[in-house]
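Continuing the series of single-chain predictions for the mutant panel. This is the parent chain; the variants come on the following pages.
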Amino acid sequence: MTATTQFTDVDEIDVTDIRLWTSDPHPALHYLREHDPVHWHKADPKNPFAPHPFWVLTRHEDIVHVSRHPELFSSANGISENAIELPMGEFDTFAMLGADDPYHAWMRGLVSAAFTAKLVRESEPYIRATTVAVLDEVAGRRDPFNFVHEVSAKTPIRVIGDILGVPRSDQHLLTEWTDAVSDLDDLSIDFEKGTGHSAKATAAVAEMFAYLERMQQQRAESPTEDLVSKLMGAEIEGERLNWQQQRESFFILATAGNETTRNTTTAGVRALAEHPDQRRELIENPKLIRTAVEEMLRWGTVVTHFRRTATQDTVIGGKRIAKGDWVLIYYSAANRDPSVFPDPDRFDIHRRPNEHLAFGGGGPHFCLGAPLARLQLRVMFEELLQRFPDYRVTGEAVFNESNFFHGIKYLPVQLYAE
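Parent structure:
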């Protein structure tokens, strides 16, 4: 069963409202799926998150359909519904995320060499050593601390920072910049223009791009083997990435390269604290951690949605979708669809099959970093549960103020039982 009794009409639900995502969004998403799974969300000119009308899709099968038919649903006209102002200039394609083939395939080809299955497998000793080092840093902590910044964020930011070529001494900057972009807690809205502005996010993006420019100047003088150097020098069919494309790629890799992993880690730590019987099973049988990671990815779905634009008239769930319509596919809803996941609101480390869409619904935009993220999550929980089996969560989780990243920014954890 799913909890939907607090709603009486689908139009009561505003999926763009950040307040929906700072608590439990699933009653609202369940209600939409049960009563209007292909829902028309009206525009609100004064709402920077809804300046344009769009369709809200909440069924697993519909979201998979959209994801796997890029000829019908384009990514090249934007991947979000909002009108939040950031100093990105022409930054509206979001590199690979906001492009269609053949440009998308070209861009993907430039960075895919850093994420091959072979390289990911070979990186396990390095990732394990990195994870152990992070846990070493908190091993002496007896009082509760924010697990997000002290543990969850550190391993993925070190891994993606090393891949990009950001020195360890500067990698804390990546955390600060991506935190600011993913958490719009200082958002101010111009109700006349229908735009939003986050001073923290604006400053963070400007600082990130200035830092990248300094990195590029250094690489021009002394090339290295990191991904920034490769992006600067890569050629496909005689073409190189321009400055705009390079900074878009850096932004996406720095953000996507840590947000999913850090937030899934935190969601998993919280879920296992709330389900001590399942945590005990994982401690006694670590082989179950692979299956548990898949449930954490489903349960704690981090990227709530993406937008697509219909390239022609089509039909979804009996509703006519017109050419040019915006279609928002809600992974958070798909991953709790009871037609695919029995008892979907139950956390279950034994769940099989588990056809979650945490890395997208398949198709050309399936996440390049999925194998790396899975490896980091598995290693983290192998090490964490072996070393701190009795950890406990000592207070309430605080979520990002964002309707795009549904992540926890504060989770107090005590490593040792008193």
